[in-house]
Design goal:
The protein is mainly alpha-helical. The chain is built from 14 helices and 6 strands.
């Protein structure tokens, strides 16, 4: 099969994702991956050897997890068009035992980010970071943190075709009530832009990056989703209940939850050290 990939094909696939009720984050991710392939293809005709060459390009320029994620998007596009012969295999990887410490946001670093946001008088970001980290919600679910949710101390979330209730801690509701009063918000979503629309992922990401230098936290650690990971690791370290954690995070697959509970290499090293199986006297 040899065929040119057109922008119209990408548009049709985008509409398919919308009709399939994919979340806005998933939609954005799929289309970003396909645009990367489209630009790399540079008007060459589609054939298996070309797709394999693209896979090699990804392997040489991206981390394995990113490669597999991008290939998954591409394979979904091929299936949508009935081009099954173009599908390529993802890279087999060993289960990750720990995450690099340079990517793990610690509680101490989280508190420094909060302090910096407060000192910079970015109250909205200050409260957003605490809301994510204290409840474990996704960025896309911030829109469900409403005045009504804070009053009832629970948020009814509708995301990815699923409904679930998120319990909001009393301590979080207390500070959010202060924010609501300061901003004179009467009802609805409390984290909004100047235009009154719910704040989006890019706004939060940009604002968080501005805190890094002053807070003395590595840029590689500072992004909204890492706050959700910090919540998951903290919850699991105290409760050791991965089933309940999966429910709280809204995961249907327990393997996804396990990724969130992976500890850093430093903690893994401490565990090995406690085994005390090295004898220095021989």
């Amino acid at each position: 099969m040899k065929k040119h990939l057109t922008k119209n094909m990408l548009t049709e696939f985008r509409q398919h994702l919308i009709d399939d009720e994919k979340s806005s984050a998933t939609l954005e991710k799929y289309m970003r991956d396909l645009k990367t392939f489209y630009l790399w293809l540079n008007n060459r005709k589609l054939e298996k050897s070309i797709v394999i060459a693209y896979k090699e390009y990804l392997i040489n320029n991206y981390q394995t997890t990113s490669v597999n994620s991008m290939l998954s998007s591409l394979n979904s596009f091929f299936v949508f068009n009935g081009w099954y012969a173009l599908k390529v295999k993802t890279i087999k990887t060993q289960k990750q035992l720990f995450i690099p410490s340079e990517k793990e946001l610690t509680k101490n670093e989280y508190e420094r980010l909060l302090r910096t946001a407060y000192n910079k008088k970015n109250k909205r970001l200050y409260y957003i970071m605490q809301t994510i980290c204290a409840s474990g919600i996704r960025i896309s679910e911030l829109q469900f943190i409403t005045v009504e949710a804070v009053k009832s101390k629970k948020a009814e979330v509708r995301c990815k075709g699923k409904n679930r209730t998120i319990i909001l801690p009393d301590s979080l509701c207390k500070i959010l009530n202060n924010y609501i009063k300061e901003r004179h918000i009467k009802n609805g979503c409390i984290f909004i832009t100047k235009n009154g629309t719910p704040i989006n992922r890019s706004n939060i990401w940009t604002d968080m990056k501005k805190l890094c230098d002053e807070a003395q936290v590595s840029h590689s650690k500072v992004f909204p989703h890492n706050l959700r990971h910090l919540f998951a690791r903290t919850f699991y370290s105290q409760q050791k209940d991965i089933v309940r954690l999966a429910d709280i995070l809204g995961h249907s697959n327990m393997n996804t939850t396990r990724i969130y509970t992976i500890e850093s290499g430093d903690i893994h090293r401490q565990i090995l050290q406690k085994l005390d199986l090295v004898c220095p006297y021989i």
